[in-house]
Design a protein that fits this description.
With 198 residues, the protein is mainly alpha-helical. The chain is built from seven helices and no strands. The longest helix has 40 residues.
């Protein structure tokens, strides 16, 4: 039986609640610190289950690291390792892997060089799936940033485009000036009068 990361967190929280002393585990109305025999047995079982869950989480982490190392090795050997890479990528996706930009680039390259319509359709479907997962991953990261929208908040309504002021029409009674009026012609400078000699 395999658990996702979210399921493991929920299970750990449930175990933490179960390990707190209660009337059921102690048999006493005010839940004193000492457990009765049945309560102590339950606590031991919960502790063993918690240890098993932690070990399963560690084993899942080791398996994930192995899968990602193998996937990177196949990706570096492309295009010769196309069939192995595609199989490794599908296995990694099934284990909860979020495709990296290098995977998207590799898939686009493989789609361009696919032989046969069936293989092309298979690679294109895998590419679309990876693009969708990568987009979901980016959106989740953006929501987690300070100031980002929370997961429960609705999408904001699109804002209308700002209204630009229309240029004013010229007043009807005023004539449009000619270029000569706007830019009068230059006049040649007059030389200074010569000084008189006595």
């Amino acid at each position: 039986m395999a658990f996702s990361a979210d399921e493991l967190r929920v299970l750990r929280r449930a175990l933490a609640v179960a390990l707190r002393p209660t009337r059921h585990t102690t048999g006493a109305p005010d839940a004193p610190a000492a457990y009765d025999a049945d309560g102590a047995q339950e606590v031991q079982e919960y502790l063993r289950l918690a240890e098993a869950v932690d070990e399963a989480a560690r084993e899942g982490g080791r398996l994930r690291a192995f899968l990602l190392t193998d996937l990177a090795r196949y990706r570096e050997a492309l295009p010769g390792s196309a069939s192995g890479y595609l199989a490794q990528l599908q296995e990694a996706l099934a284990a909860g892997y979020d495709p990296a930009p290098a995977d998207l680039a590799a898939l686009r390259s493989l789609c361009a060089g696919a032989r046969g319509p069936d293989e092309n359709a298979r690679r294109t479907a895998l590419l679309r799936r990876c693009e969708s997962l990568a987009e979901q991953f980016v959106r989740a990261r953006l929501r987690a940033l300070p100031g980002g929208r929370g997961a429960g908040e609705p999408e904001p309504a699109p804002r209308p485009a700002p209204v630009r002021p229309q240029p004013k029409a010229p007043r009807p009674g005023r004539p449009v000036p000619t270029p000569g009026e706007v830019f009068p012609p230059r006049r040649k400078p007059v030389p200074p009068p010569a000084a008189r000699t006595a």
